[in-house]
Amino acid sequence: MKKFDVIIIGGGHNGLVAACVLSKNGNKVLVIEKNEKLGGLANYSEYLSNISQEVLKELNITVEKNTSDNFVSALSEDLNHTVLQINGSKNVQFLQTSASDSDQKSFINLINKYDLFARTLRSFMFKKPPRVKSGSRSDIWQLFTMGFKVRLLGKKNMRELLRVIGLNIADDLEDNIESDCLKGLISNEAVIGTNLGARSPGSILNLLYNQATNNSFFRINKFNTNSFLKSIEDICKKNNVEIQTNKKVEKINISNQSVNSVLLNTGEQIETSAIISNSDPKTTYLELVGASNLDTDFIRRTNNYRSRGTVAKVNIEFKNDIKIKNLESKYLSGKFVYAPNIKYIEHAFNANKYNKLTSNPCLEFYINKNKISANVYFIPYLKKSSHDKEQILKNIKLILDKFIEENQILSSLIETPNDIESKYNINGGHWSHGDLEIDQLLMMRPFYGSSQYSTPINGLYLCSAGTHPGGGITGINGVNAAKQLLKDKGNG
Ligand SMILES: Cc1cc2nc3c(=O)[nH]c(=O)nc-3n(C[C@H](O)[C@H](O)[C@H](O)COP(=O)(O)OP(=O)(O)OC[C@H]3O[C@@H](n4cnc5c(N)ncnc54)[C@H](O)[C@@H]3O)c2cc1C
User: Is the pTM higher than 0.70?
Assistant: First the structure.
């Protein structure tokens, strides 16, 4: 039987990043990926908004930057679209809008307020979250710095942060802005990829959390995803990491509460004393570890972890190059958002709550000549049935017809959360491998007894978006999980 120091289950970007860190420290590492292509869900975004400088430094890589202008357009049915140019979260300019001057000012003030709060949270995103009652010096120090950083905001801002953190985004927007289009644009950032509507408590927290990890309010195109994936794959190759694709881990074999090998779908068994799972927490525990190796209370917590996906990836190819009505062609390189008002988002969300398909989904998309690549929500994960994809396409087409000049669809590909689940073996096909809500954050992510990247099984670690600090293409989870493993092995 072959033997490795560490086996990584899944070649998503976090699994690959973990492989880089471990191999750099002299470990013999094997990555097993179910699909032909590495990168996992990161393959759904051609560009990414931010890779943390900490991760880039840790891996010692540079990633190709996107040099095009950063435009964000909020589409409006009266064709008075709003176009923003974004140069860093502190430099947002209106290029075109029907919103009043005072609304524009309030919009910028709100973005600056969220930016300030997100920067305060940002320093907690890169480290292993502290345990509240551990008594360890480093955990106490981290908790103290958390409190101190919030205190540093000053009395007024600290009060405001504590006021809004549990609020819903709709309330804060309605207190400050009149324009429906601007309210929709901000709400989009607070609810995409979640099971939250604009009126759900915690939607501001989600917004701040994403902003803190992505270091970007509108998640605009800053880096090329393929360049990032290639860089980490190159490091793996250079450090002799063995990568086996088109193979699925069926089982983690455990004896005396410690991992000892993995069983593949090919029937191969590979020995190891340490495993990092890049699969989501539910799949890792319920499918790979198996209930017989976990205690009842832990299984209950695993089952209660919420990971129902809500976003479908839709690619549409049109016959001719795409033109948006009443929009200059120079803005076509930017991101488009169709979430026209809070009521519209709430309607789409309400259908999702009851596992229904809304006929009016929200869209976030990029255009490349005659192609559209869209994130469409709310398209709920369905437990026992499947969606009518023709209906989804019809609904999207009805929306796009309002904005796109006469054009014929040549082909389309729709991947619902159910498709994402079966393609990537991610329970619920969730954007972040699990909802980012107050009870599934920080030291409680994914849940009590499984946080800080460790698990109840000796030698088993988690590194996916289901761990702190959640989803997005950041690589932080991969670095932190690898460092935790190294520390436990005594060389961290
Ligand atoms: C439709 C969609 C659009 C998104 N758009 C954006 C965006 O614009 N910006 C952004 O920042 N984030 C976006 N995200 C979120 C982001 O892509 C993910 O949060 C992130 O890529 C997760 O990375 P990961 O490495 O933790 O997990 P994954 O990418 O899910 O990697 C897990 C890997 O493990 C493999 N695997 C699982 N089980 C096994 C097994 N048993 N054996 C072998 N291999 C296995 C899977 O095939 C997969 O490759 C999007 C997500 C979705 C679904």
Answer: yes
